[in-house]
Amino acid sequence: MRQVYLDNAATTALSPQVLEAMMPYLTEVYGNPSSVHAFGQAAKAGMDKARDQVAKALNCDPAEVIFTGCGTESDNTVLLGVAEKYKEKGRHIITTNIEHHAILHTCEYLEKQGCDVTYLPVDEYGLVTPEQVREAIRPDTILVSIMFANNEIGTIMPIPEIAAVCHEKGVLFHTDAVQAIGHIPVDVKAMGIDMLSLSAHKFHGPKGVGVLYCRKGLRLPSFIKGGAQEKGRRAGTENVAGIVGLGAAIELACSHMEENTVRMTALRDRLMQGIAANIPEVKLNGHPTKRLPNNVNYSIRYIEGESILLMLDMNGIAASSGSACTSGSLDPSPVLLALGLTHEIAHGSVRLTLGDDTTEEDIDYTIDVLTKTTQRLRAMSPLYKA
Ligand SMILES: *Cc1c(COP(=O)(O)O)cnc(C)c1O
Question: How many whole angstroms separate alpha carbon 53 and alpha carbon 120?
């Protein structure tokens, strides 16, 4: 049976070139990068190269790159660090109601600690406007954190415009760019981004390693307390092989971005057109054009997302639904509800996210299986018959 992996927003396959770059650091180069001897310095050299690769990809200074344990840790470091450091200035944070749990659950934690969080509502496409941000900023606002692109619906936020409003008002701006990196151009200097989170496993790098970009002059307390690694900004012996892999993966993704975007957008559009042409009563979730080149998200009326996923899986296709299936709950996705979808429509949603390895044959096979699956499930659905 054909195996088609269309869950690249959840994680991606490690690229063979990335693995090759990592191998020496999993074998002979095992020194501790903090050690002064040759073993340690060889490991440090690998990390230095990765730091340069990240700096080049983001257009920042290598000294502004902090390696972390994952995207979640980068997000936590920003929210908890800014809240702690600027508590005398104020305790108000602005974010959106469709952020990743790494942001939302940390905000909920901060609310329990006495912070005040504004969750800006998104429109039917998942967008917030710079005007909404401007209106929400108060004298006690210490941080605006808005994701670059959404992980479920792929909507791309107007980041440079939002950052400009924050700067005008003298408020720090952070973006969770975990889904954007490697797919769309991100330039922290040109876009006015103060802090940014990214994660290697979302762009064909290894799991368990991320980056926090933190603009020069802005020093946040270390989230993990301990040694002086990362110039005292993140304690703990570094995941050297992972960091080397992150560097190789970001360089690879960014060097092929233009051609990759063209290729992936064509595949994504082929998938969207195939679904729209073959399956009646579907609704595209997210923005029609301001969306990631690898994201497709549809609500398919009268059937359950979970049933679709099971049948896709039986046919070798890995996809994801809008519902919080990981928690074992059948609640529809809060992101889809935030767009104004009814529970019933939100329930019947599937997310298909493409990767570097996705082919045209994969797409055509998926359209075929999804069409047949929908027909079969609808034939059994009392809602559809009615
Ligand atoms: C995956 C993801 C994260 C979490 O990154 P991890 O490295 O898995 O912790 C955070 N934000 C977004 C938008 C994501 O897609």
Answer: 34
**From the CB of 76, is ligand 1 less than 6 Å away?**
no
Average pLDDT on 189-213 reads 98
Nearest to 96 by CA among 60, 132, 47: 132
Asked if residue 350 lies in contact with residue 320, where contact means CB atoms within 8 angstroms, the answer is yes
pLDDT(328) > 80? no
Count Cβ atoms within 10 A of the Cβ of residue 40 and give its class: 0-12 exposed, 13-18 middle, 19 or more buried. Answer: middle
Residue appearing with tokens 């797409």: 363
**154 C-beta closer than 6 A to ligand 1:** no
d(CA 200, CA 204): 7
Question: How does residue 384 score in pLDDT terms, banded at 50, 70 and 90?
Answer: confident
Distance of CA 177 to the CA centre of its chain: 6
Give the confidence band of 321 by pLDDT, cuts at 50, 70, 90: confident
CATH 3.40.640.10 is held by the domain 16-255: yes
The protein residue with its alpha carbon nearest to ligand 1, atom 5, reads 71
pLDDT over 80 (residue 329): no
Compute CA 113 distance to the chain's CA centroid, rounded to the nearest angstrom. 26
Ligand 1 pocket, mutate which of 68, 99, 100, 326 (most atoms under 8 A from CB): 100
**Secondary structure element (H or E) that encloses residue 96, with its range:** strand 92-96
Cα 75 to averaged position of ligand 1 atoms, centre (Å): 9
Question: How much of the chain exceeds pLDDT 70, in percent?
Answer: 97
Check pocket membership of 72 for ligand 1, CB cut-off 6 A. yes
Report how far residue 215's alpha carbon sits from residue 227's, in angstroms, rounded to the nearest whole number: 22
Cα(194)–Cα(70) distance, integer angstroms: 19
Q: Does domain 4-12+257-385 have CATH number 3.90.1150.10?
A: yes
pTM for this model (two decimals):
0.96
Amino acid at 294: N
Domains of the chain, residue spans: 4-12+257-385, 16-255
CA–CA distances in Å: residue 43 to residues 30, 215, 236, 238, 244: 7, 25, 15, 10, 9
